[in-house]
Specification:
alpha/beta; Rossmann fold; 7-stranded mixed beta sheet
């Protein structure tokens, strides 16, 4: 079942997501069998509730993670979402306005590896299914560390390959051969969904990614695998 791992280029990420922006949410629901909101809720449960928070959601896409945070953590008083894809942010803004959150949410076209924000700007940073798209994950994490306040935390949700062999085999078969066809049927972009499984298989996972968090100066770096190891949530704290 294992295949040679070819590391995909991140050079055209913005244009790739622009091309599928209008159908991105529908494709996500279909390829995840409707469970991707559960993944995002698992991350939200790790966000502190004991004080007012200013949040940044990086690689926010169509804002699903940001909106889940706002819905389930009323102590978030202000949220900013950034992404490199203009079309994804357009879809995200529609959803923000539909929820009546236009006064509390700012969306900006920004690269998470080099943002315009001042040091110590945010209490919490979230990043769901986007760190794989960074050209330099260490640079991106170091940038997140810079813009977080002292005591602030980052919470990263990402796909991972299950460790249990039967589950791993089924998962790899699905993301290599079934998922790309579903995604291509909905969006007419096979490349985007081949890219998805390639980045999942080649990206740092579990202890290896925790090591990168520590290199970026995060303390209390840890991970928690869930949903049979299909997704992993990473946490780091800025001391």
């Amino acid at each position: 079942m294992e295949a040679k791992k070819n590391i995909p280029s991140r050079d055209n990420v913005a244009s790739m997501f622009d091309s599928i922006g209008k159908l991105y949410d529908l494709a996500n629901r279909c390829i995840s069998f409707g469970v991707d909101p559960w993944f995002r809720r698992a991350l939200v449960r790790l966000i502190p509730q004991d004080r007012p928070l200013k949040l940044i959601d990086i690689a926010t896409g169509t804002c699903d993670q940001l909106l889940s945070c706002m819905e389930h953590r009323p102590n978030i008083r202000k949220a900013t979402g950034i992404d490199v894809s203009k079309e994804m942010l357009k879809m995200g803004m529609k959803k923000v306005l539909q929820k009546g959150l236009g006064d509390l949410v700012d969306l900006k076209i920004e690269n998470g590896e080099n943002t315009s924000f001042e040091d110590n700007s945010f209490d919490v940073a979230t990043l769901s299914f986007g760190i794989r798209n960074f050209k330099d994950p260490l640079k991106g994490l170091t940038e997140i560390h810079r813009i977080l306040k002292k005591g602030g935390s980052v919470h990263i949700l990402e796909f991972s390959t299950p460790l249990l062999k039967p589950v791993r085999g089924l998962f790899l078969f699905y993301i290599r051969y079934i998922l790309p066809r579903i995604g291509a049927f909905i969006t007419s972009n096979l490349q985007a969904y081949n890219y998805l499984h390639q980045t999942i298989e080649t990206f740092a996972q579990r202890e290896e990614f925790v090591s990168i968090l520590k290199q970026a100066s995060f303390d209390e770096a840890s991970y928690k695998s869930t949903f049979f190891g299909i997704v992993t949530i990473y946490t780091g704290v800025k001391q």
